[in-house]
Amino acid sequence: MISLRAARVMTGTTEQVDRDEAVGPRWVTIEDGCISSVDTQPPPHSNQVDLRPLQLWPAFTDLHADSLPRFESPRPGTVIPLDAALEDFATDAVAHGVVRPYLCISVGEGPDTADGYRRAHCVLQTLHRVAGDLPVTVPVHLRVDVSDPESVDGTAELLRQHGRRIGLLSVMDHTPGQGQYQTERAWRPAMGTRLFLDDDELNRWLATLHRHATGTPLRRRQIARFAAAHNTVFATHDPDSEGAVIEAAAMRASICEFPLTLDAAAAARHNGLAVVMGAPNAWRGSSHLSNLSARDAIEAGVVDVLTSDYHSGSLARAAVAISEAGVASIDSAVAMLTTHPRHVVASSSCDAGGLTPGQPADLVAVRTEPMAAVVATWSSGRQVSGPALW
């Protein structure tokens, strides 16, 4: 039995905002991998550790962790073995407080989509092989670009072989003229840079997109049916209008990722979809693609979850930054990283992601100044990152 004293304890709920005891030091006691108590005094026979100025928060659930490529290829032309890249991905996640990193694997993009499906199978097979060596369980967020005419068959095969590891399935459509890329002029440099494509490859891909565009709505609906059949959480990505959100809701989507307008975000909330925005956006104060500002959406009350997107270090920093800017209370900000995303994907109230008695001891020690940072991370009571604190 271990008791940790923190300068402040955030439970991951917003119920404590007006309670005086939330501000003062508290003791969190861990026993048999679970939180046994959160109180002003520790049990008398526990091993007691004073974390001094650090705060204790619930550990983070990251629904869109899209950083594996930078571990696979940290520089152009450099390829790191996939098992090592997955180890580095998981180590980076826990170092920044994440104990549920939903690893993004994208398929259906580019002029030669077969390579993407082969890579997806390879990542999933390697993840299965090395899972026992990773510091935490790594579920997969499979991202499917439905502009690809092979997306239905490709997704079906991935789910058939690896469905147990795929915890989240989202559909996207990066065809220029709608969604994130309203013009071909915006689409070309973005896709060329991200996928390392020259003009000829972009032209070939664009021709394929136009040739098969009429089948995109049907492919989107079919993949939504796959998600329902596999009991997999289903998400829509980059909706640009209320109509796009209503269509996703009709397909039983429960998550709306990165809505492009405030109207789309509000429509998602109105239709019962959890709205996910990027923590880098919230931390920096704006979207790097000049899309909807996460802070504006949070102030409008239409954001449920913040996710790392491409930078896991932004999670804790975003929570502190939006609190200090008066955009949201610190309680609400922490909930966006912890209990809210866990609620979207959890199958049981016994795994609600909060720092409360009876829950798994998934928690982080956080330094809030001079720059917010995660100092240590625990998963089910086992320290998986940071210096030994006892």
UniProtKB/TrEMBL annotation:
Residues 213-381 form the Amidohydrolase-related domain. One of its GO terms (molecular function) is hydrolase activity, acting on carbon-nitrogen (but not peptide) bonds. SUPFAM superfamilies: Composite domain of metallo-dependent hydrolases, Metallo-dependent hydrolases. It comes from the Bacteria. InterPro entries: Amidohydro-rel (IPR006680), Metal-dep_hydrolase_composite (IPR011059), Metal_Hydrolase (IPR032466), Metallo-dep_Hydrolase (IPR051781). It holds the Pfam family Amidohydro_1. This is Alpha-D-ribose 1-methylphosphonate 5-triphosphate diphosphatase. It comes from Mycobacterium ahvazicum.
